[in-house]
């Protein structure tokens, strides 16, 4: 609150089928991302199975939630969290973003916009607020010093650019 007061906040989740409410739950989590798995996890207790399909907005889009749906056999129609940003009329793709770089699957390396090969250096594990462990592959370019695009490519003080995918 702007006046310094703290008030309770709740996140209500409702599921429906054919315009009938099939389940609801109240969560203390401020974001939808953290309520998705606990909410769907209660579904088999009531109906003996997971739902066949789930439709949700981009607030539910996370690697953890996508993996949960895949493992539970749920067909998900859930936008990823950058969907709306990328579909704005003024959106311009970032040439230097890892998603925009060329990836050679056979050799397991990326190519930067200047043609520099970015080799795999290892794997990084991160833990989400919900306890999910995500693994990202790390790739590093070696000869960035003197590159004319260096100032556009990254802001780090190191001489090599590292990306996580």
UniProtKB/TrEMBL annotation:
Name of the protein in its database record: Transposase IS4-like domain-containing protein
GO BP annotations listed: DNA transposition
UniProt cross-references to InterPro entries, sorted A to Z: Tnp_DDE_dom (IPR025668), Transposase_11 (IPR002559)
Superkingdom to which the source organism belongs: Bacteria
Organism: Parabacteroides johnsonii DSM 18315
Coiled coil feature spans: none
Example of a GO MF term: DNA binding
Domain Transposase IS4-like: residue ranges: 3-99
Source lineage: Bacteria, Pseudomonadati, Bacteroidota, Bacteroidia, Bacteroidales
Residue ranges annotated for the Transposase DDE domain, each copy included: 111-162
Any single Pfam family the record assigns to this protein: DDE_Tnp_1_6
């Amino acid at each position: 609150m702007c006046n310094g007061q703290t008030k309770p906040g709740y996140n209500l989740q409702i599921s429906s089928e054919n315009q009938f409410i099939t389940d609801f739950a109240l969560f203390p989590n401020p974001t939808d991302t953290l309520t998705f798995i606990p909410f769907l996890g209660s579904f088999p207790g009531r109906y003996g199975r997971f739902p066949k399909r789930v439709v949700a907005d981009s607030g539910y889009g996370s690697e953890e939630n996508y993996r949960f749906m895949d493992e539970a056999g749920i067909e998900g129609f859930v936008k990823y969290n950058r969907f709306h940003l990328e579909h704005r009329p003024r959106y311009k793709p970032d040439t230097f973003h890892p998603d925009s770089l060329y990836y050679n699957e056979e050799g397991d390396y990326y190519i930067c916009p200047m043609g520099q090969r970015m080799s795999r250096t290892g794997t990084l594990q991160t833990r989400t607020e919900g306890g999910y462990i995500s693994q990202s592959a790390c790739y590093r370019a070696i000869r960035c010093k003197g590159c004319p695009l260096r100032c556009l490519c990254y802001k780090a003080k190191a001489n090599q650019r590292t990306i996580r995918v």
